[in-house]
Design a protein that fits this description.
single chain, about 130 residues, mainly alpha, Globin-like, globular, binds protoporphyrin IX containing FE, metal-binding, heme, Globin, oxygen binding, oxygen carrier activity
């Protein structure tokens, strides 16, 4: 039943766009994360909206345009530590709280994103 997919519960493409916009405005103010990202986050937000659409059970918008996500490989140019993963999740949690998602939905989405975030870690804290 597609009306029960996380994608649908998030408010489909519009809901995800809103979440992603809030998320990157928090990322741009995060002293640890912002240096990793370009100043102009328009393209980043565009890709993330398309990725999260498919990640949460909606249409495969990212793959349609950019091919297989290969997220870990695409993050290799950036030194990502556990602390970065934690900061990323923290920004996402705050963005979800601002959007007033149902607590159970928020918890479910965050648990999925946490796995992916920690999978992106490619650098030890002390080798930075
Ligand atoms: C791209 C950082 C976790 C999805 C990027 C970029 C950076 C970055 C610096 C490149 C931005 C650009 O040049 O436009 C991080 C850090 C993370 C993290 C520090 C902490 C663990 C995640 C997670 C997801 C994700 C958990 C998915 C749930 C993406 C996507 C892109 C991207 C889809 C665009 C890839 C592309 O097509 O180039 N990330 N990221 N990231 N990230 Fe992350």
């Amino acid at each position: 039943d597609e009306t029960k997919s996380p994608y649908y519960l998030l408010g489909e493409k519009q809901g995800i766009e809103k979440l992603v916009t809030t998320f990157y405005s928090l990322v741009s103010k995060d002293p640890l994360l912002s240096p990793l990202f370009p100043d102009d986050l328009t393209e980043t937000a565009y890709k993330q909206t398309r990725f999260l659409s498919q990640f949460f059970g909606g249409p495969p918008l990212y793959t349609e345009e950019f091919g297989h996500p290969m997220l870990r490989a695409r993050h290799m140019p950036f030194p990502i530590t556990n602390t970065h993963a934690k900061a990323w999740i923290n920004c996402m949690e705050r963005a979800m709280t601002i959007q007033k998602l149902e607590p159970e939905l928020q918890e479910f989405l965050l648990s999925r994103l946490k796995m992916t975030a920690y999978h992106m870690v490619n650098t030890n804290e002390d080798s930075e």
